[in-house]
Every structure is written in C-alpha cells, then in structure tokens.
Amino acid sequence: MESTMKDMRDGASVLDMDPKCTVGGGVEDVYGEDSATEDQLVTPWTISVASGYSMLRDPHHNKGLAFTEKERDAHYLRGLLPPACITQQLQEKKLMNSIRQYQVPLQKYMAMMELQERNERLFYKLLIDNVEELLPVVYTPTVGEACQKYGSIFRRPQGLYISLKEKGKILDVLRNWPERNIQVIVVTDGERILGLGDLGCQGMGIPVGKLSLYTALGGVRPSACLPITIDVGTNNEKLLKDEFYIGLKQRRATGKEYSELLHEFMTAVKQNHGEKVLVQFEDFANHNAFELLSKYRTTHLVFNDDIQGTASVVLAGVVAALKLVGGSLADHTFLFLGAGEAGTGIAELIALEMSKQVKAPLEETRKKIWLVDSKGLIVSSRKESLQHFKKPWAHEHESVGDLLSAVKAIKPTVLIGSSGVGRTFTKEVIEAMASFNEKPLIMALSNPTSQSECTAEEAYTWTKGKAIFASGSPFDPFEYENKIFVPGQANNAYIFPGFGLGLVISGAIRVHDNMLLAASEALARQVTLENYDKGLIYPPFTNIRKISAEIAANVAANAYELGLATRLPRPENLVEYAESCMYSPVYRMYR
C-alpha cells in the first residue's frame, strides 16, 4: 500500500520519514498530526487517496471552505463547495459566534460533537484556543447531562461498544476499529457516571469526552485514541423502561460473568494493541474499580482516573496551597467526606508524598488523615465491617456519627469532599473549620455542580473570606467585602492528558505511584505568584498545553529513572520532545 502511495506523488511526506526518527513514542505519524510535522505536505490517504465527495465526508481530512484553489483542482472538489476560500481562523470565529448563540449548554455540547464528526482539526482548534469557555461544554458538568440523554441525542456511534453479546469475540471486535496505532484507550462500564449513578451504555459520553481532552490538552493524536464502553446491562429502572435506551435491556452482570468478560477484554487489548497501550478505567463502581486496578496494574499499562488522577490533581492543589497556609504537608491534618474511589485514592497519595518528604513509614503518615463515610468517622472499632480499601484509614478514636461532630473532634486544617452528595458542607461545618483555622483549605470535589459539597459563595461567605477554596466543577469568581475571590478548579483535566502523554512519549510499560507524585509536583510548580495573589492554587487553563508538556516530561523522566521506559535513547530535553510530539490542529496542505 505504502509503495503505491509513493509512486503517486512527488516530494517528501511524513510517510517517507525513517520510523526511528518519528515522534509520538516511536509510532509513525501517518496523518501528519504532531507539531513536528506541521510544515510537511501530507497525502490525504484513507483506503485510497481521499478526494471529491468522500474527502468532504472524512473528518480527518475535511477542511470545508478552507480548501485552497489548488487543492480543489487536485482532489476533484470543484463544484462541491461554494467558491469562497477562507482561513481556519475565520472558520473558528464564525463557529464560536454560532456556539455562543445557544443558551442551553446541551445544545453547545451537541454542536461541538457534530463539528468533531464533520471536521476534526477545526473541532480541536476551537477547543484548544477557547479551552476555558469550552471545557465545561465538552466535559463536566455538561457531559453528565449528555450521558443522561445520550439515547435521545445519539446520532452516529463514536468508539467501540462491547457487550455481553460479544463474549468470546472481543478480539474480533477490537479489530473492527479502523485505526491500528492505538496509544490510549478510555473504557467505562457506565455504572458510576460522575455523581449521577448507573447510566449503562449511555456512559459512552465519558470516554469520548476524556479522549477529546487527551488530544486538546495533552496533545495525544486523535487517531491514537479509542473510546470503549463495556455494556453488561444496567440496574437503572428508568433506562430499562426507556424505549430510546441504546444498551442491553437487562440487569447488570456480576461475579464470574463480569470478571470473565473484563479479563477477555484486557487480554484482547494487549494482544491487538501491544504492551504499551494505556488503558484508562473510567467511572467504574467502587468494588470493580479497585479490583481491576489491583488485578491488572502488574501486567498492563493501566490507570484509573477516579482513583489516581483525582488523587494527583488534589495533591498538587494541597502542595501549592502550602505557600498560602504555611507549614509542610506533615504539619496538616486532613478530613475527608467520602471514602470511595476518589477519597481513599487521594488520601493514599497524600500519605505517600508525606512519607516521602519526612521519610516516615506509610502507616505513620496515614494517621494524619481521617475519613468519614455514610456511617460516620472511620475508626478502628468499625474495622471488621469495613470494605478492604477503607481499613487502612481506621484509626483509634471514639465513634463519631456525623461530619460536623468529626470536624469538631479532629480539628482538621484541610477538608476534602468526595462524597458525590451535594450541599453536605453545611454552614455549621464551614464555620467550625473557620473557627480554628486562620486559612482553612476547603475542597468540594464532587461533580457535576449540583453534587458539589458546597458552592464557592458559601465557602467564602461562611468563613468571612478566610477560606482557600477549590472545587471539582467550575464556579464563577465571587466578590466578598470588596475583594474578588477566584475559586480554583481541582479538575482531573490538569493531570491525565499530560500524564498520558508522558507515558506515550517514554514508551512506558507500567504505571508506578512515583509517576503520580511526579505529575503532582510538576503541576504544583506551575502556580505563579500572580495566581497566589488571587487565592488560586491551580494555574489557569489557558496555559494547559504548556502545563501538560511539563507534566509529561516529569512523568517520562520518572519512567526512565524507574527503568519502565522503552523509548530509547532518552531524549535530551524531555519538555521540548513532549511539545514536538503534541497534536497540532492546524490544517495541513494537501498535495
């Protein structure tokens, strides 16, 4: 196939590049997607050279009215487009004006998804250049509503759907995907979508949204990304009765049937895509999330964003906040509301970083961290009845039945919410935090906005402007007593795109906890004095690609130090190398 293509054209293309010199973890850049290939001529190749009507229907190659006069002649586009030739910048301006006309966020989401299906590069150009405005549209909080209504707004499939019907044939299903050089897979079973519960097959909006961010924020090629939903049924009665539901209409498979399907999937992924493909588990229920991560972390390159990604971004915020509140990590006491995937994952990473800093055993540093679940403070007297992942957090203390009593008893300096239950940081709880802390750090992490433990306005008002506040979903700046407070957003999108890019460019074969610490440290270093002056503990998203490159470089450096990287020799400047590997949405010129 390749020789045929070379006979059809003159001049050099990315396809002529020596594979040893190509970027992106050693995977050849066939479509001309990376920053390093921006100035090269590209042949718009599908099964044959794309031209005419088929080219306008191919989102990889379609440029709409931005096709030049020369390209229109070369690719049989005359008459198929209006005569005007416009720039990508003008297309972007027109589309942003159009999107801003919509009053309903879900309409903006649908407009963006339609654009992604029509013109891939323009979609990413919009998202990269308008990241702070469009991030809440393509991801949380709007993606939650999109998943709830996915059956109604479903137009054409994105990604792979693997259901119980495909048991025994999963390898064949994976081979149905047209792209071969897959580097990142995001997979969900839809059982715990954000704070919205079991949405079954309609959870596909999450892998699609996450991978859009892998590309826009982390620079991973779109052609290297594969969203997957594993449909084992749903226990959501409303969906089971919904005539428009797109998934299996049966109760969820559990136990042996579930684990066998997942094992077949993980085995097939490795067989089809190799050792270095990153599999990100997304929005699995607690019991399955911990089990899958534990089972496959020693045999596959796996990452759970709910457990590890959330932990890394929160740790970065806490480390950055130390410059505002003072002291070291070990000087602070932490109290969590919520002891599921996110809560225990964050707690473990904080304890790990504390252990590293003070060179104390992990068992000792865990004692600085307390968790409250639905039954109250987790204490040693409850140990026998606790799930395995909660047991390390059962410390010696008398029983405490609710959050307010726990705050008064423990007197934490940092309060973190990961409960998935809205408005649980009540006025009494916040006021108690302010009564014994000069600058209480309050992090209301649950998504979407409706599930946030408190709002930014409540945190600032109830602490009389003393709080340092961050949340999972975005809140607008708030004015209190003539001072503008800008709430930080502890969004996983700070971490996972750069983290994934770091694994890809180093050719890592396993994820190590030290890589998560490296990502947190890199993110915390990006917070400037100007950010601190506004009370921010995270940098603005406008710099996210630079931030992702720094994170990727730090993660890759760690992979090399641990002997887990296969991309050799190690690049001299990892930040520059990461930037050269990043996807560029600028239109390519077609010969």
Automatic annotation (TrEMBL):
Active site as annotated: Y139 (proton donor), K210 (proton acceptor)
Cofactor dependence: Mg(2+); Mn(2+)
Binding-site residues for a divalent metal cation, renumbered to this chain: E282, D283, D306
Gene Ontology MF term list: malate dehydrogenase (decarboxylating) (NADP+) activity; metal ion binding; NAD binding
Gene Ontology biological process: malate metabolic process
Domain Malic enzyme N-terminal residue range list: 116-297
Catalytic activity: oxaloacetate + H(+) = pyruvate + CO2; (S)-malate + NADP(+) = pyruvate + CO2 + NADPH
Keywords annotated in UniProt: Metal-binding, NADP, Oxidoreductase
Annotated cofactor note: Divalent metal cations. Prefers magnesium or manganese.
Sequence ranges assigned to domain Malic enzyme NAD-binding in this UniProt record: 307-560
Binding site for (S)-malate: R192, N447, N491
A cellular component term, taken from the record's GO annotations: chloroplast
Pfam families: malic, Malic_M
SUPFAM superfamilies given in the database record: Aminoacid dehydrogenase-like, N-terminal domain, NAD(P)-binding Rossmann-fold domains
Similarity comment: family membership: Belongs to the malic enzymes family.
UniProt name for this protein: Malic enzyme
Species, as recorded: Erythroxylum novogranatense
